[in-house]
Amino acid sequence: MSGITSTTALWYASRATGVVSLILLSAVMIIGMLVNRQGRLPGLPRFAVLGLHRNLSLLAVAFVAVHVLTAVTDSFVSISLAAIVIPFISSYEPLWLGLGAVSLDLMAAVIVTSLLRRHIGRRVWRAVHWLAYASWPVAVVHSIYSSHDMQSGPLLYLGLVCIAAVLGALGWRLIRARTGLPRADRVPQLMADRGLLARAGDR
Amino acid sequence: MSPVIAGATQARQAPAGGGGFPRLLPPPTHLPNPSSPGADLRAYLGLHGPVPYRDSAGALIGEVRAAGLTGRGGAAFPVHRKLEAVAAARPGRAIVVGNAAEGEPASHKDEALLFLAPHLILDGLQLAAEAVGAGRAVLYVRGDLRARTRLDDYLPERDAYGLDRLPVEIVWSPHRFLAGEESALASRVSGGPAVPQFTPPRVFERGVDGRPTLVQNVETLAHLALIARYGPGWFRALGTPDEPGSMLCTLRQASGSVDVAEAAIGTPLATLLDLSAAGAVLVGGYHGAWLPAAQAAGLTLSNAQLRPIGAFTGAGVLAALPTDRCGLIESARVARYLALESAGQCGPCLNGLPSIAAAMAELADNRPHPRVLDDLGRWAGLVEGRGACHHPDGTVRFLRSALRVFGPEIRLHQQGRCSAATARPFLPVPAGPSTEADWS
Amino acid sequence: MPTKLSVNPIACSGHGMCAELAPELISLDEWGYPLISGQPVPPRLVRDAKRAVTDCPALALRLTPAPDRAGVEKTR
Q1: Which of A86, B26, B251, B407 is least buried, going by the fewest C-beta atoms within 10 A?
Q2: In whole angstroms, what is the distance from residue B431 CA to residue A198 CA?
Q3: DSSP-assigned letters across all residues of B345-378
Q4: Quick check: helix, strand or coil at residue B76?
Q5: Any idea what DSSP says for residue B338?
Q6: A74-78, B109-113, B190-194, B314-318: lowest mean pLDDT where?
Q7: CATH class entry, domain A6-193
Q8: By three-state DSSP, how is residue A69 classified?
Q9: Can you give the pLDDT at residue A94?
Q10: Statement: B246-322 belongs to CATH 3.30.365.10
Q11: Per-residue pLDDT averaged across B158-182, rounded?
């Protein structure tokens, strides 16, 4: 058995926790869209769906933390502590790693505002939470190109499954939003349902 | 001129004790001539003199308090208290808005006043602005009145005489029932849609562009302009001690004629409406209440008499329903209109009002299901007080009064009969649902 | 200090999470929107109320000081 140095162990830990983080973040995205469209998971009350969304996101934070810290402390590649949050300044793969820093920054904004949501008001919280829709694809691109792990083999399939699942959920969310009426049409639709309007849009 | 405005020139006389009546409506010698706005202004100045500025903020408020002026937009809130609340703002920060959205389909008084006495309104706007130290003055007018009111001509004439210390901006409002609601107004003047906003904070604290905003119906501003010239004592010479002054009313007679008249508060309803051919009277508009004609005949135009029985003067709409019409059919038409006019923002209103309208339609069509009255009662209780504005509350007040007053008619309808002799509609109900563009 | 729960009906989109988290304070009407009594929140239920406020996906609930029965001066 070849000697596995602690350095190599750290590098592997970083890659492994990176993969788990991506899976968790994908799950958080999907469940978040469920919450937004008032969807349910079988057998779970609504607050449990919300609880799952939150707990998985905190778990993802933990895994991302391990992922970045092992990447920094390991000496196999050179990544400074600053490069975790400041994009594109690392000497190893500045672009792809930098995207990881971008994703992390966006994630941090989402998490912090969510922890403080009672105090910052609806509009601010919502506006920042939308950044999640940017954070995830950036994380995906970072995952695929920062190392070659996900470009072949089982991890490639895993990556494709995550992407397909999130895109599928997004499609579901968009369809649900489109069939939800804009405010001005809701009353005419309800009136038409009750036979009080021949067709919504009649004059 | 439209029949509505022609009627307004035949102003009614006050009961004994009044002086200088009518007040808001101009005498026949001073009717406006839209082709000569300059001559109109000169005639007006000859009659009332220039704007009596006090040259200090807050100076007018005491006179308004002494006069006991209350809002003429429907809520009858003491004007001096609104002025005091907005005057507390930093000088130049507040905004004053004259409200001529007149969303109530049955009301024409603001339209009539805009045509007949625009300078009283504009004077009142300037005086209110001075009293609260406002930095901006706005007139919020229903868009379809643009051609008929000639405001675009009158403002430059006033500029030529140096009458206005603050430039007046006109903001056109959509023709919707809720467009004149004060938070909807503030939203629209801020550039958004004319839909009610969540309160608190009320607009007098944070309104247009987040600034303290004074919103007053244009008739209230016209009264203010006269109080500033002739004093609180003059104002109190008409009306009752608790509800002084005069008010404009839109009178819809059983014969079908529609008239805008100025009446002293406390005038018997029987003086204003011909009740001989009426079965019921609608008081206060579509958020008001029905009363049996016999009961109305013994009442006066005053909240002191109307509030205890669940009615109120509101914006002065008085409609006498002819005996050959069915009150349930009319109420169902209004209920359908009120449901369509929901802003659709709050779940209970959005869902409850269409349900109520559908049930009323069943009642009106002689095919009510057995539980329709229970449903109506339940839904009324479910929507009341659960919206961001008072649209569901007003609708419930109207609905409950209809079910009360037209009880005998309900029993007829449940047997498949109806007492109406004609299917011609009586109350005015605009047609058509909304699109997003209709709110802006 | 007594507190009461209230909802911003414009923000509320009928998720119904509040009724699950504070069933003794909030029930849902036939359209899925919250029915909240205007009464002060009993001290033993304040924790549930706070959780409902924090967890509402639309941030539509508020817990505000309630004027006590003796009649605290109303602002206005």
Answers
A1: B407
A2: 12
A3: -SHHHHHHHHHHHHHHHHHHTT---TTHHHHHHH
A4: coil
A5: H
A6: A74-78
A7: mainly alpha
A8: helix
A9: 86
A10: no
A11: 95
Name residue, tokens 């959509």: B174
How far apart, in whole angstroms, are the C-alpha atoms of residue B340 and residue B353?
Answer: 8
Q: Taking CB atoms and an 8 Å limit, are B387 and C9 in contact across chains? A: yes
C14–A contact, CB cutoff 8 A: yes
Residue positions counted in chain C: 76
> Is A121 part of the contact surface with chain B (CB cutoff 8 Å)?
no
Return d(Cα B163, Cα B52) in angstroms, integer: 10
**CA–CA dist A99, B223 (Å, integer):** 66
Class of domain B327-420: mainly alpha
- Alpha carbons B70 and B247: distance in angstroms, whole number: 10
The DSSP 8-state label assigned to residue A150 in this structure reads G
Query: How many whole angstroms separate alpha carbon B402 and alpha carbon A171?
Result: 48
Question: Is A198 near chain B, with CB under 8 Å?
Answer: no
Rg of the Cα atoms in chain A: 21
Residue C25: how many CB atoms within 10 A of its CB? 22
**Best mean pLDDT range from A88-102, A140-154, B110-124:** B110-124
User: In chain B, what are the domain boundaries?
Assistant: 37-236, 246-322, 327-420
Fold of the domain spanning B37-236: Rossmann fold (3.40.50)
Which ipTM value was assigned to this complex? 0.88
Instruction: Quote the crossing angle between the two packed helices B347-364 and B391-405, to the nearest 10°.
Output: 20
Would strands B278-283 and B289-292 be described as parallel, antiparallel, or unpaired?
antiparallel
Cβ pair C30, C42 in contact under 8 A: no
Q: Give the Å distances, CA to CA, from B408 to B292, B297, B418.
A: 12, 20, 10
Q: How far apart are the C-alpha atoms of C32 and B426, rounded to whole Å?
A: 37
Instruction: Measure the CA–CA gap between B323 and B310, rounded to whole angstroms.
Output: 23
How far apart CA B64 and CA B89 sit, in angstroms, is 19
Average model confidence (pLDDT) across chain B: 91
Return d(Cα B411, Cα B404) in angstroms, integer: 12
How far is the alpha carbon of B415 from chain C, nearest alpha carbon, in Å? 30
Domain range list for chain A = 6-193
Predicted confidence at residue B146, as pLDDT, reads 86
d(CA A139, CA A134): 9
Give start and end residues of each alpha helix (H) in B36-103: 37-48, 61-67, 79-87
The model's pTM is: 0.88
Q: Which stretch of DSSP H or E encloses residue C21?
A: helix C17-21
Q: Could you check whether B246-322 and B327-420 share the same CATH topology?
A: no
Helical packing angle, B327-340 and A183-193, nearest 10°: 150
Q: Would you say how long chain B is, in residues?
A: 440
Which chain C residue lies closest to B349 (C-alpha atoms)?
Answer: C9
pLDDT band at B423 (very low <50, low <70, confident <90, very high): confident
Buried b (16+ CB within 10 A) or exposed e, A23-59: bbbbbbbbbbbbbbbbbeeeeeebbebbebbbebbee
Closest residue to C53, CB basis, from A50, A118, A121: A118
Q: Which residue of C has its CA nearest to A121?
A: C59
Contacts of C44 (CB under 8 A, 6+ apart): none
Return the CATH class of domain C3-65.
alpha beta
**Helices first, then strands: H and E counts in chain A:** 8, 0
